[in-house]
Amino acid sequence: MALKRSSSMKTELVNAIQLQELELELDEEINTCSSNNTPAEPADAKAHTEPRCYTVEEAVESIGFGRFHILLFVIMGSANIVEAMEIMLLAVVSPEIRCEWRLEDWEVALVSTMVFLGFMVFGVLCGYVADKYGRWKVVFGGFIWASYFSLLTSFSPSYGWFIFLRCMVGCGVAATSQGFVLKTEFIPAKHRASLLPLASIFWMLGSMLIIVLGMTVVPTMGWRWMIRFSIIPSIILIGLFLFIPESARYQVSAGNIQGALSTLNWIARMNGATLPEGELREPEVTERGNAMTLISPTYRRTSLLLWYSWFVASFTYYGSVLSGSELLEKNLLCVTDADLEHQIKHNQEDTLCYCIPFNMADYQTLLISCLGEVALIPLNICLLNVFGRKPSMAILLVLSAVFFMLVNICTTMFGFTVLLFLLRSVVSMNFNVVYIYTAEVYPTSVRSIGMGFCTSFSRVGGMIAPFIAQVLMSRSVILALSPFATACVICAVGVAFMPIETRGRALLQHG
What we know:
Helices cover 70% and strands 1% of the residues. The protein is mostly helical. A three-stranded parallel sheet has the order 1-2-3.
């Protein structure tokens, strides 16, 4: 009897072990799938045991370019209009606040520096939050923040309040810049080199719009009303942004597979396309927004060189913008056909006057120089597709150095306008390439914080540029332009040592 009971217990134990093994096999089968990218297995044996699966990268490529991407391009491009208006506003409003509060050169330069300080501090924070909690929330919050504090700026009772509120605007603009990451993560690889540089069109529109407001509103209603009118695009954009979904790449990295699938299905329907066969399957990334990844052995050299590249991109871009406006405002140009008004030079020692507002010809010169940011976009796209990201950066940096030095030569007013036009073109193109390279080189798990660190370093350049372009310029034009040219040459050498070329490469999900 005892023997029979022992035999029965053994049978039950064996059955339990077999059942556990069967459950483990089923679990493995559920968690394993054959990729759509792997070669087909011989015969049909594998088809019955392993379901097919696909990644977000494969889904984005399968959906291709369509109506959704046009909507994305227009709405997220409009975000560049808002950002450009907030940043370029400083070049237009500087002569006005200099006059109203009788400011010295360093006080005018401090206005721009405070904006970039807010951008720098919040750049990393917004990148961390975007990697942890989503890109969409950060960008949407940034629009509201920047609009609110920009409106408050127009009511500034004093210079101190003005620079504080502009610093708060810079914090909001730092958040909206994460929209570039959101946009990049939806665009198929082969279209990124063509679509992303076209965003310069929207930046140019924003720059031109604020200059047009300066021409029309400032002489009649004052700079405060110009700022109030300038937030109208932000308010419109807050409503339009509701049509943009959260990044599917972020959603899968956060473990929200169902949310990513819903987003991809909506995009596929809008584009008239279908998702790959099978199921969306990617592992959750538990380490998201880890800044240490940026200085890990894999990315250390890339990050260090990128940080300097961003510093130079911002330093030279805002240097070109502020140098142009400063040369016009203070009549420091060496022109052979100067009219009577441009023959009156700013004299800091004798304090000739605090008020040297732009005339209509100055506004027109600024407008033409803004066109330079888009006039050479076909060349930018050609460089990216033919030579790649790294060689494009090196070429554009060398050209930037050349044009910075040429701005100092004596020429006609038309000649100066052409030189300023070409300078704005090459520094803008370089900024585009740096943006694209950064969004492509880092994996999804740290893409936003990587962009955040880069934009923060760029704002250090933006903080220094006003003191070179607006303070040193009064003492020596050549001394003010030389640091910008030198920084470009050094950066061009550094770009050659970047270890990764991203042309045609898929966006990585994991580090």
